[in-house]
Amino acid sequence: MTSYYRPGSASEAVAILAANPGAMVIAGGTDLVIDRRLGRADPRAPLVDVTGINELRGVRWDGDELHLGATATISAIESDPAVIVRTSALAEAARVLGSVQIRNMATLGGNLCTASPAAEMVPPLMVHDAVAAIRGPAGERRQAVADVVTGPRTTILASGEILTNVRLRAPALSGSCYLRQTVRWAMDLAGVGVAAWVLTDGTGREAAVQEARVALGAVAPTAVLVPGLESLLAGAPPTTERLGAVSAAASAACEPISDTRGTAEHRRHVAGVLAARALSIAHARAAGLWSGGLAPVNGRASAVTSSGERA
Amino acid sequence: MRISITVNGDPVAQPVDPSDTLLSVLRERLHLIGTKWGCLTGDCGACTVIVDDRSVVSCLQTVGQIDGADITTIEGIAGRGRMMNDLQEAFVTHGAAQCGFCTPGMVVAAEQLLRDGVEPNGAAIREGLAGNLCRCTGYSKIIDAVLSVALARME
Ligand SMILES: Cc1cc2nc3c(=O)[nH]c(=O)nc-3n(C[C@H](O)[C@H](O)[C@H](O)COP(=O)(O)OP(=O)(O)OC[C@H]3O[C@@H](n4cnc5c(N)ncnc54)[C@H](O)[C@@H]3O)c2cc1C
Ligand code: FES
Ligand code: FES
Fold first, then answer.
1. Which pLDDT belongs to residue A299?
2. Which of A171-175, A291-295, B72-76, B98-102 is predicted with the least confidence, judged by mean pLDDT?
3. Is any ligand 2 atom within 6 A of the Cβ of residue B59?
4. Which domains are delineated in chain B?
């Protein structure tokens, strides 16, 4: 019989981990239960179930700050009305992750800590400049989500540390979008996943971009932020020409592999296309021009650009 | 750690290992074999059960995580003393089962979808059942059956 612990607080969880070297944290179990059965994780390792810890739960807004508990389920994120409107990229990533059953079990913290190159929630968290709180024997430290995942299946969490929450701000005049390309329209991992976030200086078609971020998933060993966007976009609306430059920058930021979900060349191309599309939708949302609800699954979204064309 | 759960209204008396999957407890300890043992990777949905008003894949659910929960399996979906509910009857009348292997998971997932108030249209039902694979029917008759109940229950 495997030792199984269900602590009621984060400090208790940390103490149990310290006392049981080799123990593993389990949240939704949608990755770990499979890994244990297949021997990718030690099936005899003691389990520390963090889903009983109140302080790790839930989706909560405090003004324009969003507080996501590590064990917030993907379905809770998908269905939060303010997440849908204010941090749309998170809702758009959540609602394409797995199936209803998987989303009811899978947690945000598990998605981050599993550190899959295709992990759905990571690019949206990165463009929203989210900060993770990590608790260990020495107390709590904060780390940008962009720095938490260090490689395929590796994170900066030391053994004995747990992720407790992720926080981000959603200021007025900001908007975001997540689009992904898959082979099947549901129950598939992303071939390419793209999140975009824009802060504008006002509303309407001519609203200029103040800040912008684009992050790409599944096209490199970890999700990557596209560098150099400020100089391409800041101070003006995202015209077709500027969006073309965003596409090129996104394609250039990829280091894709070829597999059953697409060739490296195809992934690089699709990343560019989706980056421009996601960015123009994020701009439309920030500038109050978007009334289309969440973008359809599988990247097939279009938005009207500032020059009036369909992107 | 002592686990207390109820399955289809009955408390489970025997001790279970908290790291065991709900699927293995249901089938091997409680002999409730309507819940199917399919892929064990969360992909097929044949093992779907309801845990406190949420559908989950029981092959990936450890029982330690659902201490105190009420579980409903296909054996309990119609309610006590009833053979079948309206949804199960619709599966029969629409010919929505062939080999039947996916059917328990499909019915349980669809029942929770209906309780959650799925929009009565094919697209919403398809999306809601994306985690349940069927190798036989081609899905159309399953969607028709669920849609008929979604509409009937609105009346
Ligand atoms: C059928 C199926 C479809 C899927 N589809 C998708 C998809 O489309 N997109 C996608 O991104 N993923 C997908 N996944 C993968 C998986 O569901 C997600 O990665 C999920 O978010 C993992 O969360 P969890 O709570 O289940 O993690 P668990 O399995 O509980 O844990 C995963 C890892 O994270 C660690 N961990 C969890 N929580 C913490 C914490 N608080 N602190 C420290 N470490 C922690 C665990 O130790 C473990 O190593 C799918 C999985 C299945 C089975
Ligand atoms: S057996 Fe659980 S999803 Fe296939
Ligand atoms: S009826 Fe055979 S798998 Fe669905």
1. 53
2. A291-295
3. yes
4. 6-76 (3.10.20.30), 86-154 (1.10.150.120)
CATH architecture, range A174-286: 2-Layer Sandwich (3.30)
Token code pair at residue A251: 């394609």
pTM for this predicted structure: 0.95
For residue A33, which residues of chain B lie inside 8 Å, CB to CB? 21, 59-62
Q: Does ipTM top 0.95?
A: yes
Contact list, B21 vs chain A (CB under 8 Å): 33
* CA A115 to the chain's CA centroid: 11
Q: Is B109 in the pocket of ligand 2 (CB under 6 A)?
A: no
pLDDT digits (tens, 9 = 90+) for B23-78: 999 999 999 999 999 999 999 999 999 999 999 999 999 999 999 999 999 999 99
Question: What phi and psi, each to the nearest 5 degrees, are found at residue A111?
Answer: -65, -40
Q: Is A1-48 CATH 3.30.450?
A: no
Q: Is the CB of B124 under 6 A from ligand 3?
A: no
| CB < 8 Å & 24+ apart, contacts of A139-148 | A140/A164, A145/A112, A146/A215, A146/A223, A146/A225, A148/A112
Length of chain B in terms of residues written: 155
Distance set, CA A202 to CA A285, B40, B87 (Å): 11, 51, 51
pLDDT computed for residue A296 by the predictor: 62
Give the residue extent of every domain in chain A: 1-48, 174-286
- Which pLDDT tens digit goes with each residue over A102-134? 999 999 999 999 989 889 999 999 999 999 999
Neighbours of B32 (CB within 10 A): 18
Q: Is the pLDDT of residue A302 over 50?
A: no
